[in-house]
């Protein structure tokens, strides 16, 4: 592989005009597709194989025209102090709003609060439910504007009016913090590479790669039902790995220049060595992201595949576009150890032989490996303690910022009707095979009323055929509470008994039941996912490092860092530690897909640092150095760059903490803290400590396995042989001339 990539690097450097034109054309093509495509909405959410989804599908079948998947809105009215919603003037204002909303072309139904029991017991709060004919992602902007205009007209009458539901759900914004993250990345690149131009190359190529990836996702969003968060997460991961991969190639290029190689040769060698590590590091990220499909939640699968595609583009850009732009830069990109005139006068360092920070740190670790190892494990173990209290759920309007109308509507409904009113359960009774469906409906309602934590059970509402009915159940506790989850399980237990006695099927659905089923499905999938992803990556790393213990150490170190990161997420978003600093307005359960998503992404990124760092160590070991000295040598050449790459990735991920979307905010924080733990504790401390303790045993591989494995040559041994052959040819030519 090293030889192929070496040739690819030289070709890209030499044919830079062709390579650059290809990528510019690809960016333009993707941009044109995105410009002409419909805007991304909120991806339809389905969870195949769960009871909630089965009930939802049954509603579509047995209640045609009911728009079971249509957008919904709750327009909540609160009377001024000292007044009631039943006062004539207030009642007239609400009636005007209902009439105004009923005229919408996409509106399926509007319930009158005074006819549908939508007035609180104290009379101060009322709500009107609006059901639309189309899902939220397909709702016309004119319908949203009409909804807001109707609410504003009601406000003019003196009422407090807020709107909940998914009809006004907006595309999440990341805020200015993302720009700050990129700015921090730029500063780190300048310090690391010692040149404004060299620092600009990774940023430029990463932006090109993310631009292609995000534009492609946008172009396909309507066709493939990709949600608005898909492109945000793809840009988050693509930007981070794009900068890192480019940084490693540019750094190796400067190191090759410092050894006296010509620029085209240096570009070839940089791609042949660092590029090999980029390929395998990128492959582990892609495996982890595509592996999310095993969960069988379409939205999560689409997010993973889209992000994996962006990572693949980042890898290809690092292998081709980077050497091409290095060709354009020419002598303005200086050898390692030199700085530009602007930053250092263009002079070589006065103390070139002085050990750098990486050398000094590695020397310290190999002298005291056991102490460093124990300290690292204890520290990560302490950070992981909160993960033991992990509670899972999905965000609802109650997790929105208090500045949003959705959150204010949620709070008004909780105050007026009770906390469980925001998470009603929909019980679907399928009595098609029963002799007396009406009796089954009555029995189901009566048995549910007798359960604990139930505030209200509405009368059964049968369909036209009379064989299926829906029963609305209002829990006593808020949607994300353990009590509500227990109630869902209790209703399902009642349903099992009814089925045994009558043959009728009782199913529970609704947003709250969906959330519970998603959490369970994700919990069930976590272990198989870990086995698949870690197993595949373990095999891949055995091929890369030709060792059993090094990949095992890499996998165990990853588990430590991801558990510590989950502990930090629980401490901030569930317990409320530093919540003000992180912009968390409402603590609560951790998003259901957070653990499995973190496992996938963090594993891929963790293997990035493992590959980049340990390939340099193995390269030194292969070339004859003792194990402890090889660790020091590897750190001398790679610690500075790996540290810079980690800081960049942390900065980019941290930028997404400013997003308006709670899911993106939480993922941004989780990935940032996970990279912090993995890069600086696991890879920079635990890895060298373990390698120092293992010594030569770290590189042990059974002979039969050594013979069976393909030689991918990540360290570029074939390039060293190429050097020897080239040197011998030069000597022969000199002898002929003599």
Structural account:
The chain is 64% helix and 7% strand. The protein is of the alpha+beta class and 738 residues long. The strands form three sheets. Strands 6, 7, 8, 9 and 10 form a five-stranded antiparallel beta sheet that branches. The longest helix is centred in the last third of the chain and has 35 residues, at 511-545. The chain is elongated. Mean pLDDT is 83; it is low at 346-352 and 724-738.
Helix count equals: 23
C-alpha Rg (nearest Å): 30 Å
Q: Note the overall shape.
A: elongated
Cα(first) to Cα(last) distance is: 38 Å
Mean pLDDT: 83
Query: Got a strand count?
Result: 11
Low-confidence stretches: 346-352, 724-738
* Main sheet makeup: 5 strands, antiparallel
Please identify the structural class as seen in this structure: alpha+beta
Q: Bin the helical content.
A: 55-70%
SS strand fraction: 5-15%
Concise synopsis of the structure shown:
Helix content is 64%, strand content 7%.
Question: Descriptors for this entry?
Answer:
disordered C terminus; 5-stranded antiparallel sheet; 4-stranded antiparallel sheet; 738 residues
Present the secondary structure layout.
Elements: H1 2-14, H2 16-35, H3 51-62, E1 72-78, H4 88-102, E2 107-110, E3 125-132, H5 141-156, E4 160-165, H6 177-193, H7 196-224, H8 228-258, H9 263-290, H10 298-329, H11 341-344, H12 357-367, H13 369-384, E5 392-393, H14 405-417, E6 425-430, H15 437-449, E7 454-457, E8 461-462, E9 468-475, H16 482-502, E10 505-509, H17 511-545, H18 549-574, E11 590-591, H19 594-622, H20 627-655, H21 662-694, H22 703-708, H23 717-737
Helix pairs in contact: 1-2, 1-9, 1-10, 2-7, 2-10, 4-5, 6-7, 6-20, 7-8, 7-10, 8-9, 8-10, 8-20, 9-10, 9-17, 9-19, 12-20, 12-21, 13-18, 13-21, 15-16, 17-18, 17-19, 18-19, 18-21, 19-20, 19-21, 20-21
